[in-house]
Design a protein that fits this description.
Helix content is 11%, strand content 35%. The chain has 433 residues and is mainly beta. It folds into three domains: 78 residues, no CATH class; 94 residues, no CATH class; 199 residues. The strands form four sheets. It has a 15-stranded parallel beta sheet that branches. The longest helix has 24 residues. The chain is elongated, with a radius of gyration of 38 Å. It starts with 21 loop residues before the first helix and ends with a strand.
Length: 433
């Protein structure tokens, strides 16, 4: 056995060499305790390691204790800065728009940037939430500093956040920042719903309360060819204003048999629409009601088409805006549509945009409204088009039409009295056909 044991310390000096005893060989030891250089070297090394570990323990304020096997770990933790220590773990409670974590484990001893926390959120997060952890309060924001959005952390979800100045920010992405492919999702909105819901069912506990919240979540979270938005019960719904741009078409449904019972109502900011679309939208079986005196009822921009089927457009106050405004986009009337309420114009096409009535379709005018500019206006390469076989039924006051600056109004041969009004139309550097 000794011949197979290559140990340099056993080769010299010869006075320290000996053959192992039979007892040592039987125990598996090819050398004996009298091999002094090896013994001394091992003893020195072990003593040196123990001495260095004892120094680490003392420097952390502890007294070395051989029976306590956690002293070195505690010494390591004592020198780590708070920002790279363990995550501080806790659970929120909600009061209004404030999420509060009364205490975390381990406790936060001092405020510092990038203070890391792992937080459970039973209620989920809602746009505009403030977060308070162990008394450190601030707006809760996404990682890039943009406002947190409803659904970024779902109910009973967990979030990693860190301190960023006077704010709390997510570590990584919010749930709604991750685009999920869905072919044709359907979401519900009800006047008795909640914007903290997910919109998955037509019930107060599942449906959204506002169209704006529904659209923001659906467009930010899903990639779709068509989004179906269903108004779950009759009532008056807050107008969304600008509809977020989507890759697919958005269809908003009321009830084609009760379009007056499903009302989208509100005032756009001056010069903008109660509904303003820069993406393709279908409106079906509902009423859009403009309450502003400087805003439009329905606007299509940016190449978008807004198609109306069984839709009533109303202005509740006399407005300097227009009912159907194609400004670089197209508003199209299909069957069962009407216009009512005083405005600057019923149909207005501008900047390559168009307001159009589909073939063999009648657009109704309700209540003899006044249009201070004209019923139909086309300016700056805009168009108003009444396709073959279409008509306008009802009366209004004001000019019948106004075409200027290379605008085109095409009635397909309907003549100068095609549009309602009690005054003749007007054309300047434009076409009326």
């Amino acid at each position: 056995m000794k011949a197979d044991f290559n140990a340099r310390w056993a080769e010299a000096p010869a006075t320290l060499r000996r053959e192992p005893s039979a007892l040592e060989l039987a125990g598996g030891f090819p050398c004996g305790p009298l091999d002094l250089p090896l013994w001394n070297e091992l003893t020195y090394r072990l003593t040196q390691v123990y001495g260095e570990l004892a120094t680490v323990v003392r420097q952390s304020g502890q007294t070395p204790n051989q029976s306590n096997l956690g002293q070195v770990w505690q010494a390591i933790l004592s020198v780590l800065p708070a920002s790279v220590g363990l995550w501080h773990v806790g659970t929120t409670t909600r009061s209004g728009s404030t999420l509060t974590v009364a205490s975390v484990t381990p406790p936060i001893t001092a405020e510092a940037d990038f203070l890391p926390c792992l937080i459970r959120v039973p209620s989920g997060v809602v746009a505009g939430d403030t977060l308070s952890i162990s008394g450190l309060s601030g707006l809760l924001k996404r990682n890039d500093g943009s406002p947190i959005q409803t659904g970024d952390v779902p109910p009973d979800g967990e979030m990693l956040v860190n301190r960023h100045g006077s704010e709390w920010r997510l570590v990584g992405f919010g749930r709604t920042e991750v685009i999920i492919p869905r072919d044709s999702p359907t979401f519900y909105v009800r006047t008795d719903g909640s914007d903290g819901n997910d919109g998955s069912e037509n019930s107060p506990t599942k449906a959204f309360r506002t169209l704006g919240a529904l659209l923001n979540k659906a467009v930010s979270q899903y990639a779709f060819s068509q989004l179906n938005v269903r108004m779950g019960i009759p009532g008056t719904y807050e107008s969304p204003g600008a509809i977020p741009v989507a890759a697919g078409k958005i269809s908003i449904y009321g009830d084609q048999a009760n379009q007056a019972g499903y009302v989208i109502q509100g005032a756009g900011s001056p010069g903008r629409g109660s509904i303003q679309a820069a993406t393709s939208v279908d409106l079906i079986g509902l009423t859009v009601s403009n309450t502003g005196n400087q805003s439009h009822t329905l606007v299509a921009t940016n190449g978008a088409q807004v198609a109306c089927l069984n839709v009533d457009l109303r202005s509740l106050a006399t407005t300097t805006g227009f009912h159907a405004y194609g400004s670089g986009g197209r508003v199209v009337f299909q069957t069962g549509c009407s216009i009512g309420g005083n405005a600057a114009a019923a149909l207005w096409g501008e900047a390559g945009g168009e307001a159009a009535i589909n073939p063999s379709t009648s657009l109704a005018v309700v209540g003899n409204p006044n249009f201070s500019t004209a019923f139909a206006v086309a300016i700056a390469t805009g168009r108003v088009t009444a396709l073959s076989g279409s008509s306008v039924a009802g009366s209004s006051t004001g000019n019948r039409y106004n075409a200027q600056s290379y605008g085109i109004i095409n009635t397909n041969g309907g003549g100068p009295n095609f549009f309602p009004g009690d005054q003749a139309g007007f054309v300047s550097n434009a076409l009326y056909l």
